[in-house]
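Quick entry between incubations.
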Amino acid sequence: MSEGVEWALHSCLNLAWIGPERAVPAARLAAYHELPAAYLNKQLQALARAGIVTSVSGPKGGFRLARGLDRITLMDVVAAVEGPDEAFRCTEIRQQGPGAGPAGSYAAECAIAGAMGRAELAWRRELVSQTLDDVRERAELQAPTAPERIREWFAPA
Amino acid sequence: MSEGVEWALHSCLNLAWIGPERAVPAARLAAYHELPAAYLNKQLQALARAGIVTSVSGPKGGFRLARGLDRITLMDVVAAVEGPDEAFRCTEIRQQGPGAGPAGSYAAECAIAGAMGRAELAWRRELVSQTLDDVRERAELQAPTAPERIREWFAPA
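Done. Structure below.
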């Protein structure tokens, strides 16, 4: 998984703490964690295409959350950044080579792909079951002053 | 995940069907599914380092299973080929940049890493719970003639 997922998740939490009324430029979100701005911008654009953040143009432009953290799951962010493909991609090698049976003679799903798919499903179920608001709650228990620090740093001059 | 995982899983099943008494060269295992031999050899070497297959040198050399399929889990093969790292790697960006708190002030685990870790754990649990023998059983239900076809094709001339 790319580091873009970690960056996107932290940026969503930061946007929530900053507040939904303000759009924040990618460069500013990147500076807060010393991340490369162009690459974080790419992740934020992916979040915008997925409807997780809204991209606002103009001098006061930037990104803001498109909906509440309680309506964004970990799966939403992972799928937005990494794409919808499964981690294990079956390329049907059972149908390749001298041992291959006649076309059309294969069960719908290779037993190996099925087994790997069950694991992927368990992973996705867990990602779907956790919202960013659950994560925010735990983060605030760990670091009660973080939201205030973030709001202050991002406050308009 | 690399295609090496799919290739390694199929190769383990093929080695089981060929039988534990014979070592099979990587090139021959690769030819059966029209795979690039050098790359499959790399995966088989990784399986050998993990103790899943045994590498036999000499004119009758090659690879054979080091233990029964009922003692090889999907997790064993994935870890052998992909390495032990988690798919989501937390790089602790919360501790980078102007908003970072004093060193040592952080909870043991970032709430984001914890949430992503729970999903990874669900994935790994499912991979650990399935042995290659479970997969072999289902494959044979789907394709009852596959084991015999494979034994015939790999039979010594």
